[in-house]
Amino acid sequence: MKYKRILLKLSGEVMMGDSKFGINLSAARELAREIKDVHSSGVQLAIVIGGGNIFRGLSESAKDMDRATADYMGMLATVINSLALQDALEAENVFTRILSAIEMHNIAEPYIRRRAIRHMEKGRIIIFAGGTGNPYFSTDTAASLRAMEIHAEVILKGTKVDGVYDADPMKNPKAVKFDSLSYLEVLKRGLKVMDATSISMCMDNKLPVVVFNMFKNGNLKKVIMGEKIGTTVS
After folding, report:
1. Rounded to an integer, what distance in angstroms lies between the CA atom of residue 58 and that of residue 79?
2. What is the pLDDT of residue 166?
3. Do 212 and 230 contact (CB within 8 A), yes or no?
4. Do 209 and 233 meet the contact criterion of CB atoms below 8 Å apart?
5. Least CB-packed of 109, 121, 133, 152 within 10 Å?
6. Which is nearest to 158 in space by CA: 196, 106, 210?
7. How far apart are CA 52 and CA 99, in angstroms?
8. Residue range 29-86, pLDDT digits in tens
9. Which domains does the chain have, with CATH numbers?
């Protein structure tokens, strides 16, 4: 394996499957099997999952809401997704712990950096829920922050496209895919890899990001084994 400790950043969309919103149990179980396959290879794995399939703070439905309130609702959506993913993983007999930036003792442990690292050392998958615990920060920023705190070697961002393009490949069939990019290129071009705050944090700490298609079976393991899949930002 090329990487020994990774942070996997997933959008809430991976939980939807064929549904238009919410959580699709079959999709969650399939995702859990992909993650289990990687984890059983001895990789220490932390996960940050978004909440866009349930509620997005910048969505149309939140346009007349106070931004902080909408963002807190988005953070709670990530907790719901984290619980669903934990359930799917434990159905596959994978020990999992949720650490939440927003304290809710009945369903998740509070986030403590040393505890998170210890869980991984004991072979448990950890899921970071609740974003950073603060409004105005995305789950991308939470992923970068947590990755640096636990000394992850890389952020793997699983999306529905197979890398970073110069335009939206869903709308423009002539969009060109990048095999690699520098942090500054991403910021200057305004490419939708991760938000600018997240990319800046990665640049300051020399933390690489690999963007790949999570919806294709086996891709996660291929990335961890060092195959040239998706786009690498470094």
Report:
1. 18
2. 84
3. yes
4. yes
5. 121
6. 210
7. 19
8. 999 999 999 999 899 999 999 988 887 655 666 678 888 988 998 999 999 999 999 9
9. 5-233 (3.40.1160.10)
Report residue 187 as tokens: 């910021």
What six digits make up the tokens of 143?
Answer: 């992923």
Residue 3 near residue 153, CB atoms below 8 Å: yes
Task: Confirm if 149 and 114 have CB atoms less than 8 A apart.
Answer: no
Task: Please give the structure tokens belonging to residue 198.
Answer: 């997240």
CA distance 209 to 201: 11
Concatenating the DSSP letter of every residue in 43-97 gives -EEEEEE--TTT--TTSGGGTTS-HHHHHHHHHHHHHHHHHHHHHHHHHTT--EE
pLDDT tier at 168 (50, 70, 90 boundaries)? Answer: confident
Which pLDDT value is given to residue 48? 97
